[in-house]
């Protein structure tokens, strides 16, 4: 296996990178373990300064980084720019707040005079996906590095230039050598690395298939894990909602990144009283979305990551239509290129169809109507996933009730779901475990050490 950069819009192969050997991998792990010994002793303010420098560079060089994202995985460039800016924001967030999060805390107990300190663990191994190729890496790397860990990255095999760029910009920011390293390795080497005594945590963002494999390897080696996996998030519109605002948010929530987002709004539930009006509003907006060359700033729908991804959603849609679903708009491959699929809305979606039950990683939205609250909760929670949920309503009491009743890591009212550096992010059920971002995210990468003095 090798790392291939192929532009999904042009189909052109850009560059191939060979994997490193096992002995090279051993050497890098050893060097990283040596780097850890001095990095953990580097004063926190210096680590914070470096993270701020990294944020500066990402902001200064954002056009370059965004262009690489667009060329490697097809994200429309205006969205790629927003991703790089958000990555810089996450660096700033941890640069500004790490001393507060990592300050030792007095803790009252019956065990003498006690306090808690937050020490680094060692090497954090980040296994990352292609769909947000900067953001996913940086939301793991920033808290891990600032708390004194070293980070080894195994990025998805279709975004090698993003991986190289990230390593280069970290070096340029002044982080010491071997504190952060990119690795071109295959799946068996991922397992080998998890077996290393130096690797104390593994953080995977990716599919459930990868989650099962990595969790099993980490389990065998008693290595701490953070798993950020798939989703099939609900987007709920009640009859008192601001329908225009809900429609605008839904289109962003489902179709940005050409539908290839873990927290995309993947199932729409609309109160029956506003169902026809809302469906009309959303359909109009979806039909107006501009598809085309992702390097054009006014394009919103780019190519999907590759033809295999198009085949997969086409098969999920076909099966759903055979079971009784009906297309309102879209429904076929796009005319702009081999990796395009039209933004699609499906109604009368059978509950046991792929569009209702599986994660659909592309621009396809199944719609359901609901009448009463209990039926809605049953349906929303009847999913193996539980990442996030968006709800549009003006009723504060209803918000409180829903907050408790929905099984998800995040519930957002009157906006589409998106992550924020200052808020914990993660899932329940098959969407994974552990949290990223905020003070909860940094706690995943530290040894919460109890100190008692009698
Ligand atoms: P993926 O195929 O699971 O790949 C993710 C990473 O895991 C890649 O680096 C991949 O390497 C590696 N990997 C895959 N199988 C592996 C195995 N058996 N052993 C070791 N490493 C393995 O996922 P993807 O297609 O890139 O990303 C899409 C999925 O990620 C979706 O399900 C999406 O919902 C999920 N996701 C979740 C979040 C979240 O925060 N919860 C965020 C974004 C995406 P190779 O590329 O070399 O196979």
Short overview:
With about 450 residues, this protein is of the alpha/beta class. The chain is about 40% helix and about 20% strand. The protein has helices spanning about 20-40, 45-60, 60-75, 75-100, 135-145, 160-175, 185-195, 210-220, 245-255, 275-285, 305-320, 355, 375-380, 395-405, 440-445, and strands spanning about 5, 15, 105, 115-120, 125, 150-155, 180, 200-205, 225-230, 235, 265-270, 325-330, 345, 365-370, 385, 390, 410-415, 430, 430-435, 445-454.
Provide the CATH top-level class of the largest domain. Answer: Alpha Beta
CATH homologous superfamily annotation of the largest domain: Aldehyde Dehydrogenase, Chain A, domain 1
Radius of gyration: 22 Å
Q: Roughly how much helix do the residues carry, as a percent range? A: 40-55%
């Amino acid at each position: 296996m090798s790392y291939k950069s192929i532009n999904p819009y042009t189909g052109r192969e850009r560059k191939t990178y060979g994997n490193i050997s096992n002995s090279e991998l051993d050497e890098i792990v050893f060097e990283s373990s040596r780097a850890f010994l001095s990095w953990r002793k580097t004063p926190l303010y210096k680590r914070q300064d470096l993270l701020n420098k990294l944020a500066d560079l990402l902001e200064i060089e954002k056009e370059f980084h965004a262009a690489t994202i667009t060329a490697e995985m097809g994200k429309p460039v205006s969205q790629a720019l927003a991703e790089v800016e958000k990555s810089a924001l996450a660096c700033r967030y941890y640069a500004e707040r790490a001393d507060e999060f990592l300050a030792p805390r007095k803790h009252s107990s019956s065990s003498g005079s006690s306090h808690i300190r937050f020490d680094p663990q060692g090497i954090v191994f980040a296994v990352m996906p292609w769909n947000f190729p900067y953001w996913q890496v940086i939301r793991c790397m920033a808290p891990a590095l600032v708390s004194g860990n070293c980070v080894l990255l195994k990025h998805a095999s279709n975004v090698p230039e993003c991986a190289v760029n990230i390593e280069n910009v970290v070096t340029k920011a002044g982080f010491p050598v071997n504190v952060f390293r990119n690795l071109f390795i295959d799946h068996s080497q991922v397992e080998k690395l998890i077996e290393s005594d130096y690797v104390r945590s593994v953080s995977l963002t990716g599919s459930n298939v990868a989650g099962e494999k990595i969790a099993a390897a980490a389990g065998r080696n008693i290595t701490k894990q953070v798993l950020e996996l798939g989703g099939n998030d609900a987007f709920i519109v009640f009859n008192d909602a601001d329908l225009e605002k809900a429609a605008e948010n839904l289109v962003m929530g489902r179709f940005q990144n050409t539908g290839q987002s873990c927290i995309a709004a993947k199932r729409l539930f609309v109160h029956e009283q506003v169902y026809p009006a809302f469906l009309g509003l959303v359909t109009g907006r979806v039909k107006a979305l501009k598809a085309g060359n992702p390097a054009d700033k006014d394009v919103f729908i780019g190519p999907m990551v590759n033809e295999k991804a198009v085949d997969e959603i086409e098969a999920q849609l076909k099966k759903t239509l055979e079971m009784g679903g009906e297309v309102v708009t879209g429904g076929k491959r796009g005319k702009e290129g081999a990796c395009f699929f039209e933004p699609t809305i499906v109604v009368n979606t059978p509950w046991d169809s792929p569009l209702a039950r599986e994660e659909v990683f592309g621009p396809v939205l199944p719609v359901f109507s609901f009448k009463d609250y209990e039926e809605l909760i049953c349906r929303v929670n009847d999913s193996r996933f539980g990442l996030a949920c968006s709800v549009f309503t003006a009723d504060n009491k209803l918000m409180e009730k829903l907050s408790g009743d929905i099984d998800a890591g995040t519930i957002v009212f009157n906006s589409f779901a998106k992550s924020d550096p200052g808020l914990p992010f993660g899932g329940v059920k098959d969407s994974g475990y552990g949290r990223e971002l905020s003070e909860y995210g940094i706690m995943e990468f530290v040894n919460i050490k109890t100190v008692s003095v009698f």
